[in-house]
Amino acid sequence: MAQILVTEKIGAEGLDALTQAFTVDVRLDLTQEQLKEILPSYDALVVRSQTKVTADVLAHGTKLRVVGRAGTGVDNIDVDAATRAGILVVNAPASNSIAVAELAIGLLLGMARQIPQARASMQAGRWERGRFMGWEVRGKNLGLLGFGRIGSEVARRARALEMNVLAYDPFISQERAQQLGVQAVTLDTLLRESDVISIHTPLIDATRNLLNAERLAQLKPGAYLINCARGGIIDEAALVEALEHKQVAGAALDVWAQEPPKNNPLVAHPNVIALPHLGASTEEAQALTAADVAEGVVDALQNRTPRYAVNAPFVAPEAWQIVAPYVQLGRILARLAAQVVQSPASAYEIVYSGELATTTTEPIRLATLAGLLEGASESRVTPVNAALLARDRGLALSERKLPEAERYAALLELRVTTSDGALHTFGGTAVQDEPHVVQVDGYWLDVVPSQAMVFTFHQDRPGLIGHVGTILGAADINISSMHVGRMAPRGHAMMVLTVDEPVPGDVIAKIEAEAGIAKAFSVQL
Fold first, then answer.
1. What is the CATH classification number for the domain harbouring 495?
2. Lowest-pLDDT choice from 9-18, 91-100, 386-395
3. 373 and 486 inside one domain
4. d(CA 515, CA 464)
5. Average pLDDT over residues 341-366
6. CB–CB of 440/426 below 8 Å?
């Protein structure tokens, strides 16, 4: 059974889901060295924001198949290194959207009415009504730096407060902005016209220190800043200067370049609301985060593509219902081709017919690539790193879509052209979500693949199948099913036997020595 390591506290809902399916060890407060020492025993690692999953750490995860981040950002995980190692990274991007959006609005109102400062004054025994003159958010311009899930939720709430909402995002859709009553603008316009800017963008190379001294100087004098996204997006030293020179009237910061912050003047600044990264700290968000990341980890360990895979293609739920069984089938067809086609291949093509021609097929392509590369690469091969490994080896896989699938609602075909010009075709479909191989090199049959199979290409004649069965029986190999396809009676034919264990080479040699059998293969999936 797969083993999962959890290194930080996650909600009981997530732990329960993990322990119902696999063995789970919760080990908190591990040092990096301790983590590297024990990681080789685990198939999955679940973290929050404190555990640093570096390339060095991942290199020790020799069994790792998936890393789960209980939260939105994955800046504490080296996603590129995970991808190269074939390790899936999953997160829970939708789970804390409401919690973070509500916190941003709370901080907006807190700055507008100086609520934390007024409370501190009261606690000090003072009554200073005249000191804490506030301002109304109604009619003010709120600039959203980032317009993804959280930014959109902030926009909805800000519109309810009668604010004018501007948004800058390189991938913003005008249609989406209009639906929410938001004006899509350039970054320069956002900085120049916003009374308050709320940051909701990830921390990547392009956004690190995005609000530096130069950009802070572009702000409307007396503007306010809110950051509930990631520390490092604002240049904190530049923000101190902007506050001192009244270019920025106030800031509300839930995240920091270093967490916890050390000797950071912003923490004690009188015009800053400083919080200890509370964005997702609601009971509802924690429960949903834990459940979402657990679902992703379980899906990955059970060979399904998770909803929120960071380094794998996203597939909408309605499309996934069609695609899912063909992901497994793509790998099966590729493994068949790799073991049955004997001549060097010069070209590979996937053909998607029927229903498959109308939906996303990227997960199928990646699974097929992984199947082709298994056994041909020193690296561990999974759909996560298959495209990278294929590119390194110069392996190209073309694709074609056809609206009709003839006999089936959907048909997946892998076509292999060899260096001698021969074309080999392997086809399959899904029956009640179960993969079936239905075509091999022009022979039509219907096989539910097993882990071990025997393929023969032979002349159709009486008694031959019985002879093969006798050879396998003498070797104490049990046959679980038999499938035959032929071009014509007593013509060219093929047979597929599913067996309980792999067939040794010497037994295959005996089968191949039978009169009328041109070729026999032991296939292992």
1. 3.30.70.260
2. 386-395
3. no
4. 8
5. 91
6. yes
Q: Does the pLDDT at position 428 exceed 90?
A: yes
- How far apart, in whole angstroms, are the C-alpha atoms of residue 224 and residue 227? 10
DSSP 344: P
Give the pLDDT confidence score for residue 166 in this predicted structure.
96
402 and 352 Cβ atoms separated by less than 8 Å: yes
Range of 164's domain?
97-274
DSSP 202: -
Residues 379-404 have pLDDT tens digits of: 678 888 888 888 877 788 999 999 98
- 3-state SS, residue 524: strand
Q: CA-CA-CA-CA torsion for 143, 145, 146, 149, nearest 10 degrees?
A: -50
Q: Structure pTM?
A: 0.64
Q: pLDDT tens for residues 216-232? A: 999 999 999 999 999 99
- Whether 488 is covered by a domain: the verdict is yes
Residue 252, pLDDT above cutoff 90: yes
Beta strands 479-486 and 248-253: pairing type?
unpaired
Judgement on whether residues 260 and 150 belong to the same structural domain of the protein: yes
Pairwise CA distance, residues 282 & 459, whole Å: 70
pLDDT of residue 373: 86
As for how many domains the chain has, the answer is: 4
How many degrees, rounded to 5, is the angle at CA 326 between CA 388 and CA 382? 30
Domain-embedded: residue 349? yes
Say if residue 150 is in the same domain as residue 256: yes
Query: Which residues are annotated as catalytic?
Result: 230, 259, 277
Return d(Cα 20, Cα 14) in angstroms, integer: 10
From 228, 220, 236, select the one nearest 202 (Cα to Cα): 228
